[in-house]
């Protein structure tokens, strides 16, 4: 049985909890220059994007992800692990390669994401295809308190629509992630890391956009985002179980 890959997008805040649960042993950190890198060129990412993906092989690669992201790709509603189901293939490739290349700090995941564990560029292309094509989204993601949604709606319209779209659908060609129906607690953690500079591969336009957000602003807009509905064709039934991992 392959070992569990820790979240494509989770970060160091979960290490202690995972270690305490006995889920994994600590592994080596990814190489890191300490520099902020939004997009790199001539990397394995470029190679993976050009390859013809094999979703059947991607299913085999995804097996190592199921322990944390769950077989359905729904992660956990408490935000420990994000929902990856429904995410754009290009975004999955970018984030995974950023971790592999040291452009995004994630010592929890790195030991399980490196080529010696899951394979090279073809494996990355394949697993991204499998996730994007086969995994239906959670119809009931983790929400915030729901007490400041009007403010959240206004902030989203004023600050987020240009990149993430009116419905939080993102933009596959520009590597902007789908954020609609993502777990509130996960969004909150990543947002804070982007503001603090801890998530080094964040789009610099976003870093600038949110630098003056108050805590209230942050909580309100992300609560609103978590409640943005995904397109019906991307959403699974509440009791949906991935038939590939029975």
Folded structure, characterized:
The chain has 246 residues and is an all-alpha fold. The protein has two domains: 12-134, Cytochrome Bc1 Complex, Chain D, domain 2 (Orthogonal Bundle); 149-234, Orthogonal Bundle (Cytochrome Bc1 Complex, Chain D, domain 2). It is 43% helix and 0% strand. It is built from 13 helices and no strands. The longest helix has 14 residues, at 121-134. It is globular and about 45 Å long. The two termini are 14 Å apart.
In terms of DSSP E residues, the strand content is under 5%
Quote the average pLDDT: 86
CATH class of the largest domain: Mainly Alpha
**Number of E strands:** 0
The backbone outline, from C-alpha atoms, is: globular
| Count of domains | 2
- CATH homologous superfamily of the largest domain - what is it? Cytochrome c-like domain
Which CATH architecture of the largest domain? Orthogonal Bundle
- Tell me about the largest β-sheet: none
Helix content: 40-55%
Task: Looking at this protein, list some descriptive labels.
Cytochrome Bc1 Complex, Chain D, domain 2, 2 domains, globular, mainly alpha, disordered N terminus, 246 residues
Task: Reconstruct the topology from this structure.
Layout (H helix, E strand, L loop, with lengths): L14 H7 L22 H7 L4 H8 L3 H4 L19 H12 L9 H4 L1 H4 L2 H14 L14 H11 L1 H4 L19 H13 L7 H7 L4 H12 L20
Helix pairs in contact: 2-5, 2-8, 3-8, 5-8, 9-13, 11-13
What's a concise summary of this model?
With 246 residues, this protein is mainly α. The protein has helices spanning 15-21, 44-50, 55-62, 66-69, 89-100, 110-113, 115-118, 121-134, 149-159, 161-164, 184-196, 204-210, 215-226.
